[in-house]
Structures are given as structure tokens and as C-alpha cells.
Amino acid sequence: MSISQTTETHAPPSKLLTGGKKLATSFVVILTTLLGLLVITFVVGRMVPADPVIAVIGDQADQATYDRVYKEMGLDRPLYVQFGNYLSDVVQLDFGQSIVTKKPVAEDLARVFPATMELATLATLIGACFGIPLGVIAAVHKGTWIDHTARVVGLLGYSTPIFWLGTIVILVFYAHFGLIPPGGRIYVYDEGLVQARTNSIIIDSILAGQWQVFWSAIHHLITPAIILGYAAMAYLSRMSRSFMLEQLRQEYILTARAKGLGQRPIVWRHAFRNIRVQLLTVVALAYCGLLDGTVLIETVFAWPGLGQYLTSALFVSDMNAVLGSVLLIGIISIAINLLSDIVYRFIDPRTR
Amino acid sequence: MSRSGTFSNLHNWLISEDFSSANQARCHKAYLAWLSLVANPLAFAGFAVVALLIVIAVFAPLIASHDPYAQDLMMALQAPSAAHWFGTDEFGRDVFARLIYGARTTLYITILVTVIVAPIGFVIGATAGYLGGWVDVVLMRITDIFLSFPSLVLALAFSAALGPGIENAVIAIALTVWPPIARLARAETLTFRHADFVIAAELQGAGTGRILLRHIVPLCAPSIVVRLTLNMSSIILTAAGLGFLGLGAQPPMAEWGAMAASGRQYLLDAWWLTTVPGIAILTVSLAFNLLGDGLRDIMDPRNG
Amino acid sequence: MLRRNLAILASVAALSLGTGVATAKTPQDQLVIAMAMSSIRGLDPQEINQFEAAEVVANLYDRLIALPPDRITEPQPSLAESWTVSEDGKTFTFKIRQGVTFHSGNPLTARDAEWSLHRLVKLGLAPSTDLRQWGFSAKNVDQLIRATDDYTLVVETPGVWNANLILYSLGSFSTSIVDRKLLMEREKNGDWGREYLQSADAGSGPYSLETWRANQLMSADAFENYWQGKPAMRRVFISNMPESSAQRLQIDAGDIDVATRLSSTDLGGLERDGKVTVQKTPGIGFYYLALNQKDEILSNPKVREAFRYLIDYDGLAATVMKYYGNKQQTIIPAGLPGSNTENPYKLDIDKAKQLLAEAGYPDGFSKVYYATPVTPEFEVAQSLQANAAKAGIRLDLQGGDHIGKFRNREFQLFSARSGDRLPDPHAVLQSYATNSNNSDEAKLTGLNAWRTAWEVPKDIQDMVVTAAHETDQEKRVELYHKINEAYLAASPALVTSFQRTDAKAVRTEVKGYVGHPTWLTRWDTVTKSE
Asked: Complex ipTM, two decimals?
């Protein structure tokens, strides 16, 4: 769903680094992009209609308190000074304090992000394991019913409102059949059994040897991950289909065919080998796109990750938390794009 | 002359490549596109649903049997029946009527976003591509900054800043949709930048605006139209997502995303409240995708 | 490849489902409460201002006075063993219970009580109203509230107030007694340990905080050395569950014991199934509609009166408000002195139209209407919007966090619900019926009447003030009856439609979990039957 089709234009995605530009230029490019992100979040933060001071002091406080906090928050200074302060704070990884958790937003993000990462990683894995073979098969059987079915399955993944699908799944599989947990990351009374070391409950429970908690965590993770994974699968199958078609048109395939090689080895040994790199970058993009999907699915499944943190902060106008999360998501997207670019350049002989 | 005779004459006129006028040539092209659309059952199904959506939206007052805004708390949460085909919601409003009127909202959002985004995306992209140099660098940098956010998150941040409401949601969505259009327009422009007819126009002293409008727009249009069609579904889904988070349409307006979201509160007693609008979103968004996919096959056979 | 992946996934899914205990029950000696935790902003008793957080604080801390849920207007001893009030009604002397310890192990003395009350007044945050409204201020509190020895606390009030008002205040969560020694160790830049207390506990209550993850989870363990004995529930969890349907499904399956954020439909469904008891605890507050009196149209008394005919009291009472409120159009909450059951208004579009015509607006008008998009407030707002439309008033309803605009008088219509902490009519009346200076500069932003720019009739204001100072209970009750009548007749700019009730679903095997009108629900009284 939320992996917008727009990302199709970036395969191969050289949107940050183009052609043979030097590392220094690309560094400047990244810096300006980051600065742009900051400008956007800053502007958004100033535009918010809800009163940030009330958000801190509550509804019934008197005017003197209001005025004092207003000053404390630096809201009486000119905008450029505020932006300067914001910039220097962010550089020091200080995103301000959340009015809900009363903790530094950076600390909160470190706590909630691993949960989102668990979800997005498993979802990407699921998406890749099913989407890529599906796309390749569709390409091989282009124009047949297999291709059409794959196309509809893929487009369905693009078209389903993910929050709605989650709701229906909970209704059917939890409420009616009692097969899946209702949401959350583990059962509440399993809380406190493992020490939080990495904030990834799966890793933590393995480290602690708490297998009951481990299975509880997997059990909670699997449903939202499958739903998100479906969205990723849709995207990946479409992309791999079009990459594969491109390859199958190439001369070397015709040569291989002429040599009498079978369909399977041609597709999997030759053609697939050549699209691996492209696929890698597309998988990276799918991962970015899933960050979008987690925002909604975490709300539905009460998954205590970045998405839920962001949306619940939004409802109570906790703007430091909102902007911190948005910024983090933006930075991760840039980082993943960058990483996939670098990998692309290293692996793909043509760009070397 | 018999009716079928008229049609077959028309068909022959349209299919003939011995053009007697530029008009005929244009009609010929459109007719061929239409024929290949009909030949592609999936794309045609998508087209049919979109057409149906438009008909429903236009004739909503005639189709809906009830007033979508009329409340009757005593009739709240009634199951689907002959009187209320899709039941009633928490205020006793007819869900079928709201679904029908919701088609208007959905269409309104998609059209408005498209109308805003197409010219902006085109102007930025084409200007960057045509002028090149630092203009290109600056414009594309801005585009990339917007692109680096996942679209829903960006729309979320903007609608939070602008405040809830359907116009604000449209602006927020538009802000996330224009960058890919701009990139596409730039890429297309680059391929035509040094074409003979552009150079010729330049030599004749045509201004930048005129060249963009007269020469570049017509050439970029097909691929941008395809992209916009494919985008429609993500616009619908983003709007629904915003509605789900309470940031989209405000009451009492009927909007499918908001309907699905508020229906979740009554999920266990009134499954129809969230199921029906959800299926509507799914259907329409799938239809736009099928149509867009089909159009791409037709206009850009390479990727078919 | 696809087939193989399918097989792998299927086996993983089967394995995880097989080991899963999807309908697990909560353990016998643990209590799991589901809440919408996003409104809990820290756990500092002298800072919080909201009922979900108050329930946590109520159990981590004790107060001088206890207000039992079933006899809310009768102050009972708690950390104060006994007290005396001087002849002139201005000096309260409390004898502090000996042998009570904090969770830290520090003994609790009158010095802690003194420090806690000073802390409340001097921090000056939202709940400090509880003491400040009686005239305490950062300047005079050192002198007026003092520990004369380790087990005696003297509280002098700046003026004469009804003694119950002072005692109720000392039973509010904001006057919880905190561990002075511990907090002084944790103090940073003279913040009274405020930063530390956001996510920690410095109390002597029946439970001590174990885990606090904002917006996600709270767990608290029974305190071994609690002065009233160790509670039965070894551990209490609060789990964040903002969605009504999720809470309903889970309480139905036994995954949680108490659900606190359910829609009326879900509460109705649960009650039918019989696995839970639904508690409907009346609160000290109302669902209200505020009409800004700076607006020319809305300040017309006939227009104000018209709005009273545009609320579908009965329709709402039967549906969305079934568990969230009791129909009430007067201003003194039911159950308190002076309240009555008079509800003269009902939905009457024609009457409203007639009033609008008399006011000179036969074709209605358009206004912007702010409301909070949460259940049931938003449903109430949408219902009013639809009825107003029938009378020709076009309301542009905008959901969102508009409380700041309400405070600054920058609104036209606004609706919300209020909740006060003192089980006394004065708590409500002060906010709804006093506005000593209606100018913009006065900035009495804590008062609903000022926010609405409503020039409350002088006689009502005078009576409210007199009643608060009145020490004779009978005269007081009589005054409150009068105020109630006068308010109803004044076509107020603050229209009340329902008395707030807080609904909680509790599984039938859980005993002793009793909703508290001023949000001090206790966990130490909870037991579970087989």
C-alpha cells in the first residue's frame, strides 16, 4: 500500500549519488538534504495550531505559569534564533523533551525504534521471500493467467488500506477463532522477565534464554509482519517482474536458449544473477516504504514502536516527539538509500 | 442506413490510416488506445469501476435513498436490512447513502490533488530539465528532500501542522505527490531538450515558457498522465490513512477513511461500519491501479 | 522456491500458534488494567492533572485524609490519625501517624507532609489550585503550613473557609505526601526533584513503582511494609490500549481484568455477556457547551437559550452517553449538597427556531465549533451539529486540540467535559459561576466562565463566594439550592447537558476494584475469586 509507486522511478536508484560524482559532492548533497529535512520539521513545528505551552503546563494553570514557561521554551525569541537553537540541539541529538513521557525524545526513540525495526525487518523478509519468486515466475510466464494472477495479487497489495486489513484480521482471527494475540509485543504479564539490553525483545529474550518470552514475542510479531509483508511483496513482485522481463529480452538469454539450456537454469542461474543487485536496492526501498506502513499498523496492533509513538504524540500535540520521529524516519530513509547506492556501486561491475 | 452500418463506417473511418485531416489522425490515435484498453480485460475492469465511481459521485443525490447527514439516534447501529442496505452508523445515519456521498469526497480529493500537483510538478521538473545548471541542481535538491520522507509520514506532519480538515489534507497530500511528477517531467524533458524542433523554436526566438508549453508539454503528457493515474490510488490510500488518524475530512462529511476509522469503535457489534467503506476504498484504489497499469502498457509498451 | 517458502512460513506460523496461549488468563495474584495511557504525563503528584495518572498516584502515595469512594463527602483518617479545627475555623492541627515508612525505607514524618504541601504550592503547577484557591501562595505558605514537631502538622488558612473544603483538598491526589529525604537527594537545580519524579515514585502507598514506560506499560509491586498490611495483588499492570474494541476483546477473553476506555456500545455488549460488571462512577464535572460571549450573536440570551433546545438529551442518554453521563441540566453535580433532578429542557427544534427568530436570526447563522475528537465528546458534538443544522445554524465542526484557544477566548463554540477534584459544589461553581473580572487583561484563564467571557450575574457570584465561607452546613445547603436554581434560569453561556460518569468494566472474579469519583481508585482493596 504505502510503498508509493513513485519509488519505481529509482531503480536503479541513484537519487543521492549520480554517475561519477566525487565523494565530497555527495557529502554536500547529503548535508543539504539533511538541512532540508530540518527546515521542514522546524516549519511544521511552528505551524502547529495547538498551543505548545498549554501542552506542557496543562489546562488549568494560571497566567503567570504560562508566561514563565513560554519564556523557558524560548518562544519569545525571533524565528531565526529559534531555528538556530533547534539546529544546534539536533546536532547534539537533543530533540527536546516529550511532554507525554517527560523524557528526552532521543531516549524515547532509542527505546521504541527497535520494535519497529523488528516488525519492518520481518515484513521485508516475508515480502522478499514471496514477492521476488512471484515476480520472476510472472515474468517467465508473461501474458498467461499466471502473470495476470500475479499482477492482480500485486495490485491488491498496493490497493488495500492497511489499517483496515489489520482491523479485519483481528476481528476474524482473534475475536472469532482466538488464533492470534490481540496486539502488543508480548503478554503484559511476561513483562519484566527479560532485561532490556537491545530493546529488541526477540534478541533480549534469546540473550536471557527466556524461550517462553521469545515465543510470545514471535507469536505477537507474526501477524502484523505478514500484513505489512504483503504490501512489500506486492511492490517487490512487480519490480522483479519488470527487471526479469528486461533480462529475458537480452541477447545472452537468447544465446543460452539457442545453446539448448533449459528454462530453469536460464532463469535462475543467468537472468536472476543479473538482477540481484537491482533487487537489493529495491528491497532497501521497500524497507523505507514499510516505515510508512508501520505508522498505521502499529496503531491497529498496539505495537509499541515508532509509528505508535508518532501517532499518539500527534493526538496530544506533543510536537517535540512528532518532529523527532519524523526526522528519524527521514534520516533512516536517506541512510538506507545511501547504503543501497554504495552497495550498488560496489557490486555492480558496470558502475565500477 | 442501419445502425450497425453507421458504427462500422465510423470504425472504418477511425481505423483508417489514410488521414484526411489532423483531426482524424487524433481520433485515430485515441480510438486505437480505446481498442487496446477494451482488449485488456483487467484495465477495462479498472476503467469501468472508475467510470462507475464518477457516475455515482455525479448522481449521488439520485442514487442515495436516504439523507447521508440525517441523524436518528434511536435508529443507531442497525444491521443491514431492506430499508438500510448497509445498515446504519452510530448516529443512525444510512451507511449506503454515506458510501455514495463518500464517492464524491474521494473523487474531490483525488481530482483536487491531481489538479494541484500536475502543473506544479511539471513546471518544476521541466524548468529544471530545460534550463539545467544551478536551477536544475536547486530544484532537484528540493525535490529530493521531499522524496526522502515516506509519503504518509510527510503528509501526517503537514496535516498536523495545518490542522485537520479536507482542504488541508489535500494540501498535505499534494506536498507528497509532486516530487515524483517533477522528476518524471525532468527526465522526459531531458530527452527532448536537444531535439531539432526545440532548437528550431529557440532559433525562432520563442521564450522558455512558450517552448515548455507548446513543445514539451504535449510530449511529456502521456507518461505524466499514466503516472498520475497510478498515483490516484496512493492519494486515496493516504487520504484514507489521514482520515483514519482523524486528520482528514471533518464531520459530518462522509469520507471512506474516516468512516472506516470511526466504525472500528463499533467493530464487534456493527461489522458493516468498517467493512463496507474499507471494501469501497480497496475497490476504487485497485481500479485506479489496474487502469494506470493498463494505460502504461498501451502508451509505453516497453515495460508491458 | 515459492512453494518452499510457503512451507517454511506455514511451519513457523504453526509453531508460533501452537505455543501461543491466545486466550491466556491473567494470573491469580496479578491485576491487569487497560488504559489509554497517552494522557498520562509523568507521575509527579504535584504536577499531574488528569484522571488516568491520578489512579496511579493514588496507589503509589498516601494522603493525610482519605475520601472513601462510598462516603466521598466524609473525610477519614489516613496518614493523619486525627485532627482538630480551632474555634475561629482557621487553624487545622493534624496528628501524623507513627511508624509509617516510605518505599525507600525512610520514616514518614510531619516534615515530609510540610515539604510536600510547600512543594505543591511553590511549584505552582496545574494542581496547585487545590491549595492556592484558599489563599495559599509561595510567599505565605512557609508561614501558614508548618510541622511543629515530627508528628504534628499545623495548617492555617488565610481566610475562613468551610472546614470540609480544606479537608477535601488534603485528600486530593495533588496533596500526596512525598519522600522529602529521597527527593532532596535527587534534586537538580532546585527543581524539588521534579525531573526525577516524572518516572519514579517517592511514596508510602500500597504499591511501589516497578516499571514505567510512558505510553506503553506500568507495573507496580505490592509494598511489603504498607501500614495497612500488604495488599493481596502481588503485582499490578497498566497496559496501554487506546482502542475500545481491543479492550473489549481482551477483557472478554480474560487477557485483562479491568477496562477503562470502552465505548457505550462495547460496554453494553459486555454487560449483556455477563462476564464483567460495568461500574458507572459519577464524577464532579459536566459535559458542557461554551458559547463565547464576545460574539455578538452568541451573547444574545435568546440564542443561548435556543442551544439548550438543540441538544438531544434523551437520544444521547440512550446511546453514546449511556455509560458516560447522566442527563443533568443544572450546575451542582448529583449527590452533592444543593443538587436537584430538574431537567426542564429537551430536544425541540421548533422551539429553538422560534427563539432564534425572536432574537432576530430567523435564518440562523454560521459558526465555527471546536471539540475534542474522542469518544463520547465528539459524538455529542456531531449530534449537536446535526440538530443545529435543522434549526438553521451551520456549525463548522473542527476536531483537534483546541483547549489553548478556549483558554484565550479565541473561539466561537467549544465543547468538552470537565472534572474537578473536590467533592463539593464549590469546585464546580468556582469555575462555572464566578468571574470577578471579565476583561481580557484579567486572564483568569483557569475559570470556564472567564474563558467564555461570561459576565456571570452578580447575585450568583456573590452567593458562590458566601457559600464557600459559610461554616454552617445547613445554611450552605440552602444557598447551593438557590444558586442551582438561579444558574438554571440565567440561560448560562456554559450549557451543561450531562453529569460526567466514568465507566469501567471489571471482570466478575475481580472484587474490590471500586471506581472513585475524584479518581483515587485503590488497588490494595482488590482480590480475585477463583
From this structure: 0.84
